[in-house]
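User: Fold this; tokens only.

Assistant: Input:
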Amino acid sequence: MIKSQLKMQRQNKEKIKISRSIQDTIPVDTVYSDGIFRMKNRFSKTYRFLDINFSIASDDSKEFILKMYKELLNSFDSSVMVKITINNRKIDFAKFKEDILLKKKEDPRFDAFIEEYNQMLIKNMENCSNIIQEKYITITCFKKDIEEARSYFGRLYNEMSSHFKRLGSQLIELSLNERLKIFHDFYRPGEEDFFNFDIKSSARHGHSFKDDICPKHLKFNNGYFNINEKYGRALYFSKLPQYLDVEFLLNLCSLNKNMMFSIDFYTIPTDEAMLEANNKMLGVDTNIATFSQKQIANNNFAANPPYELVTRKKEIEEMMNDLTSRDERMMLANMTVVHLADTKKELDADTAILKDSARAILVDLSTIFLPSRQLDALVTTIPFGVNRLQYMVRTMLTEALATLTPFRAQEIMDKGGIYYGQNTITNNMIICNKEKLKNPNTLVLGVPGSGKSFLVKHEIEATMASSDDDIIICDPEGEYDVIMDHFGGEVIEIYAGGKDHINAMDITLGYGDSGDSYKDKAQFILSLIESVNRGTVSLEERSILDRCISIVYQKYEETGVMPTLVDLREELLNQPESQARTLALKMELFTLGSMNLFAHHTNVNTKNRIISFNIQKLDKNLKTMGLLVITDQIINRVNENWKNGKRTHVYIDEFHVVYSNPESATFFNSAWRQFRKRNAYPTAITQNVEYLLQDEESRSIFANTQFFIMLNQAANDAEELCKLLEISPEQMQYFKDVESGRGLIKFGSTLVPFRMLIDLESMLYIINSTKPSDLEEQRKRGLIK
């Protein structure tokens, strides 16, 4: 036997002890507040790691992931035991409903929507896989005391973190309570919300931590066990093929079963591995020589060695070459699965499904018999950090072990979030909560008919119903009037000759992001002038404009009367410079001329919680100016809400229009930054991705955004988005030439392909659709005129 293997077995050897209580089945002696467990001379610590999109990665990306994962496996030395665990647990529907379903507001305008929205969620919830995967890596080391163990785990965490970062994942250190909750939730299914362990209180009262996590009933039988009211069974991988399919573990763990899978392994030093390989080679050569001698003695001089011996020799030669030339390490590993069911019949059926799935690729998954061995397999599989099945190990090289990659697909299921569809890969619901992001800025991108407006309306309605936040919409096409009327929002129609007016000179305390409100307002006025005159403003004109803006706002501070663009123009005419009169002439068209709709005092209710600025009737030449003035109004509202501790959700459709000139682009980029700083959640919607990506100013919007919803894109736009957001060609297929309502979500660093599932007969669909056939249905129901 290999020297390191003997040493590991001696260190792991436990005295035979009959469990006299359920608590005795938990193989942990002491727990520490930082999440470290002590088991005699062993210390263990568990880390959770985030999933990555292995299933939808390109072949090159998969090869890179496997290479990085192989480097991670090779980084562990022979002094530690490593356990990689995949925990498949069923979603607790009761808790899920509490976290996701909307509460009634006792307002008939919202309650009908809330009822239908909740029914949609429940229906989709019942049709999804109902499984959440959590993935852990547990390290067990042999140290003299806890201080030495802490020091070791501290160094190891930094090293492992860098490996997981290169994989595109993240390593998260589990606290004591987070680690204990894994065992509590497994041992006590259905009681997940009742875990509440306090180590100080437990020590003060002389209680054991085991009392808080152990099952209430545990009985081991021949080939299965009973845990509370559940049935469970432990299985192990008794035979593996020579070549493993990289998809095997992904497919096995994607089954809709409540189970836990673990790989336990430790490495063998290369010199000992080579010695073992040489000994095996010597044995094979001896057998071949013995066979040849017997054949010669029988005068059979042409006999060839048996195929089995030749094949065995070739395998050992390949192993020796891998160990010396291909950076492979020899590892001793064992793999176990524990699954739970409600009845014995269901347990047997699930076991048969698991075995059939394994058998399909020549893997034998065998039941562990004898009650005591079921206990050993159970505590080995659960991430305590022990391995009581170390005599059932098999020899594997790093490459073979790396094919059992734990990565599959990313999920987004945030508490308190909004439903955005179903995960195309796992079929689980996608629930996004923008509060979880570093910044909540959102871009919704897609060609006409891809489902942009529908999805945004759905988000707006869910936000209306789930919070008291303010919602402001810039609506260039009048698409949001239906939901405004339905939910009691204020529609402000802006067009030449209209009765609704917005003062472009409105300003609130704290306007802008430079610290000088008047300077920032001057930048806005410059963008207005350039949007109308389609030209640039000289440096001299900028200086004069700054001066005049300060003068009119000083008068405002004295009189309390908000200035208008007319006041600003009159002040320009009072200046001695000729450039001032040039500026006044440039402003004449939208102060005294036919485009003076923003030169009046504001006369509409801008205090409503839900406001939509409808500029559908606005002249095409004034669209950019209209969007700028509305954005400026939104900034004022955001500042006011921020001072009052209230959040604002901002939706700007067809926002690419503001990038028609440099000044308006600069102004909008400034607004985008301000929104994030002032507790606002901005969402920009556009179909013109190509136009945006050609402009450096607009590309900065992408850099300052963390939430992307990419619906159907034209081929060129899709390729440009992939370059900008580092999306692979395989992932691009989810938003290139796809059906309406399908696409790819980028939520922070998480990428999830999705499809929107809503009943076509429901009010949720009819009220939000912009298809001509659905508009007729809206007229029949009196939703639109």
